[in-house]
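Dear support,

We are seeing what looks like truncated structure output for some complexes. This example has two components. We would appreciate it if you could run it in full and send us the complete token output so we can diff it against ours.
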Amino acid sequence: MARKKKTAAREAGTGRKPVNKLLIELLMLNTGRISDVIEREGQQIFGRDNLLSNEEITDYSLEFLELFASLLHAGERIDRRGPEYRALREFFNTFSKRIRARGASLDEFVRYIQFLQRVFLENLDAAEEVSFEDARAVVVLLGSLFNDIILDIFHIYLEEKERTIQAQQEELRQTSTPVTEIWDGVLALPIIGTLDSSRAMMVMERLLTRIERDRAKAVVMDVTGVSSIDTQVSHHLVQMIRAISLMGAEPILTGIRPDIARSLTSLNIDLGQVTTRSTLAEGLKEAFRRLGVLVGAGAG
Amino acid sequence: MARIEGMHLTPLGGGDVLIEPGEGFDPTDPDLYAEPLLAWLQAQRALRLIYDLGNVVLLDQVYYAWLLRLERLCRLADVELVVVNMRPAAAFALARILREPPPFACALDVDRARARPPRRAAQARAAEAAARCQSAQPAKATDAAASSSQPSR
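Here is the complete output from our reference environment:
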């Protein structure tokens, strides 16, 4: 704040124009040329892969110049919290979303922003009456403004990526532990992969709700797809089995491979009171038997 | 329907009794309920006590200790305790604190609890099965099993 005041005082003392005003003048003098260059470069970057049509590029270029001019007009200093800055930021946000939705990468967007910055600097170079101090102030202003916009867009991009990854992880979790009603009152739960605490809690919650909703009598838990078992996983398994019993359904554990069985015995996990069957098919047969359902090969 | 402070008791017939803990029930003081409950069960000639947990949202150590105490009490009176209507959240919480399976039976609801074979009959059948294995005359053992599996009450 003190620095800004000092700069303003210096500008007032030396009779220099504020940077914003200088930029506006440059923009007014060369609007046609700047607009043409921006359109042409935009077509090179985005038109090549049909990311944007020529009309869209023209519209975006004009909109950008309009918003940029509003920002410069808003005051002697650029206010990062002002509506003009927010409008420009929103414009770039929408613009980057649009081009990324059409297959562009963030690199292309950054290249475009850098190009916009260059256009103004080149115009500054061409203006003979601009002093070195003014030129330096313009470079600093443009650099900080466009870098902030790039950073903003990058953060938004990262947040979106993060949300996508989380949604995919959630979807994977949901699909990797499907609770299926195989028969009236018989639920099957194939467990694939590892069973960490958060996944075990989620599976248990869904399973218990299904037991209540479907009035399940038996639950066949198949661990054929469990890659390895340690103390934590076995602990979760035992908790699940116990919770199923507490709900009044009968748990049947199937698909315990020899290596898993060896791990369970070495971990002193006692599954003595749990009904176990070698395969999911055998487990289902056991569940049907308990329900009094007869399953056999047809006569044909 | 009878009422002991904080709980409703309903004879369902066939030796089954339904117990529903209510608003005023305090599981931290099992002594308050033990004696009148046992007296009532014995007066009803109860064979099975069906404990409805439908209104119990969370089962903690204190509530589980009460259930254990009740199960011991029931065992002394030769009454089977069956817990029903446990909410998923309660089962979830209880499964996390249990170190061994509970000594009482669990069923999804009252109908399922009543459909379970009575413990005494189940014990009798187990004894008969053991006797059959030892016996060299399967036909006679089957006859004996048939005659002894008649309801005792």
